[in-house]
From TrEMBL:
It comes from Dethiosulfovibrio peptidovorans DSM 11002. Residues 10-70 form the HTH tetR-type domain. GO terms for molecular function: DNA-binding transcription factor activity; transcription cis-regulatory region binding. It holds the Pfam family TetR_N. This is Transcriptional regulator, TetR family. PANTHER family: HTH-TYPE TRANSCRIPTIONAL REGULATOR PKSA, HTH-TYPE TRANSCRIPTIONAL REGULATOR RUTR. Residues 33-52 bind DNA. Keywords: DNA-binding, Transcription, Transcription regulation.
Length: 205
């Protein structure tokens, strides 16, 4: 009986979240009201408030969902042991910077999430990604492929850097500007980790 109640609660929450996703895509975050979401999901205001305290609360939920997706993809890359630690690290950076490329709605929503709950997501990003990035950096140091004396602290800076860059890539307009920015990022990363400049020649974005 308890399991059925949990299933119903999970289903209700998903229905509300699905409605929010659709409406944010159609009307934007600011243009969507709680009335819109309850009407689309077919639930009462009372039911809505059983799961979420506000529209911003749903945004936090969606932000966590996006971060979990990004973490899952990053873990898959980190598990590619046939690649060097530096290449896996750089591929993770590229993945995180381009995951929503070409998906205009998801990019717009990501920007809204960033503006509205930036500090919370930044703290979450450190907690979620720091163990993974620290492990890669330590592996690179042990293999003699990275020259770093403080792996955990360096990994923290890398996580924070990528978290900020996620929302800044679009400022470089035009292919040439993006290429120059990508090359600058590669140079910065190589110097930060003491890595090999010949590893990973792809553009980051």
């Amino acid at each position: 009986m308890q399991g059925k109640k949990e299933d119903k609660k999970t289903r209700r929450r998903r229905e509300i979240v699905k409605a929010a996703w659709e409406l944010f895509g159609e009307k934007g975050f600011d243009g969507t009201t709680i009335d819109d979401m309850t009407d689309r999901a077919g639930v009462s205001h009372g039911t809505f408030y059983l799961y979420f305290s506000s529209k911003e609360d749903i945004l936090r939920y969606l932000g966590e969902d996006v971060q979990e997706e990004m973490l899952s993809g990053s873990r898959e890359i980190a598990a590619m042991k046939e690649l060097s630690p530096q290449e896996r690290l750089f591929r993770i950076v590229k993945y995180l910077l381009t995951i929503h490329e070409g998906q205009e709605f998801r990019m717009d929503l990501h920007d809204v999430i960033h503006r509205k709950i930036h500090d919370k997501l930044k703290d979450d990003a450190i907690e979620l990604f720091l163990p993974l990035i620290t492990s890669l950096v330590e592996e690179g140091v042990e293999a003699g492929q990275m020259n770093i004396s403080r792996p955990r602290e360096t990994a923290t800076y890398l996580v924070l850097l990528v978290a900020e860059l996620e929302h800044s890539v679009d400022q470089w307009e035009g292919e040439e500007a993006r290429k120059r920015a990508s090359e600058a990022l590669r140079e910065l990363l190589i110097r930060t980790i003491g890595g090999d400049e010949h590893v990973f020649q792809e553009d980051f974005f």
